Structures are given as structure tokens and as C-alpha cells.
Automatic annotation (TrEMBL):
Region ranges (Disordered): 1-21
A Pfam family: Kazal_2
SUPFAM superfamilies referenced in this protein's UniProt entry, alphabetically: Kazal-type serine protease inhibitors
Source organism phylogeny: Eukaryota, Metazoa, Ecdysozoa, Arthropoda, Hexapoda
Biased composition (Polar residues): 1-16
One GO MF term: serine-type endopeptidase inhibitor activity
Stated name of the protein: Uncharacterized protein, isoform D
Chain segments annotated as coiled-coil in the UniProt record: none
InterPro entries, per the entry: Kazal_dom, Kazal_dom_sf, Spink4-like
Domain (Kazal-like): residue spans on this chain: 47-100
CDD domains listed in its UniProt record: KAZAL_FS
């Protein structure tokens, strides 16, 4: 490997900064074809039974977000695990915010 004549260190590789063309989303900061994303197309509406169970689940207020396959961001892993315990069919897509993974909509 050739060393940089100025610094004496190996050359740094560069990453392309342009986003690939097409319908891509970022999953764990890697571009993925939008049709291959690990999200469900439409999450079913929460039942009252689920909401009651989830509301009784003891968790801390720690902010350490989990983005789940139902396009929901859970405050922390405890909240995510509560959703699993209460019957949600979900998996972790990213440890962090869902921002940038799918088009956001205002309610």
C-alpha cells in the first residue's frame, strides 16, 4: 500500500456522497431499495387490550429510541419489549430514531 507523501499515512478511502437514484431508504445508514424495507406496509390499529397491556407495562423514562418494523419509534428498549409482550408482531429495524427510514406523515 502506498503511503501519502505529505502525511506518511495510508490514503483514506472516500465514500460517495451522492445518494443512489431510485426509491431508496436508509436502514442503519445504508441505502436499501424501498420495496425491500423491513417495514410492514400498514400496521394494524392497536386494540384496547393492547393499549391496556402497554399502559400497565413498567418502564423507565430513559430516551434511547428503537425504530420498529411497524413504523413506530419506541422511547427505549423496555417500551419495545412491552409492545412485544403485549402482542405486537414487530422487530427492531434500527436502534435510534426512525427519521429518514420512511416518508413521515403528519397526523
Amino acid at each position: 500500500m502506498a503511503l501519502n507523501a505529505t502525511t506518511g499515512s495510508p490514503p483514506m478511502s472516500t465514500r460517495p456522497t451522492a445518494r443512489p437514484a431510485g426509491d431508496f431508504v436508509l436502514v442503519n445508514n445504508e441505502p436499501v431499495v424501498g420495496t425491500m424495507t423491513p417495514f410492514v406496509s400498514a400496521a394494524p390499529a392497536a386494540t384496547q387490550q393492547f393499549l391496556d397491556c402497554f399502559g400497565r407495562c413498567p418502564t423507565t423514562p430513559e430516551y434511547n429510541p428503537i425504530c420498529a418494523s411497524n413504523r413506530q419509534m419506541y422511547l427505549n428498549e423496555q417500551k419495545f419489549n412491552c409492545a412485544l409482550f403485549c402482542g405486537a408482531d414487530i422487530r427492531i429495524v434500527r436502534r435510534g430514531s426512525c427519521q429518514g427510514l420512511f416518508p413521515m406523515q403528519r397526523g
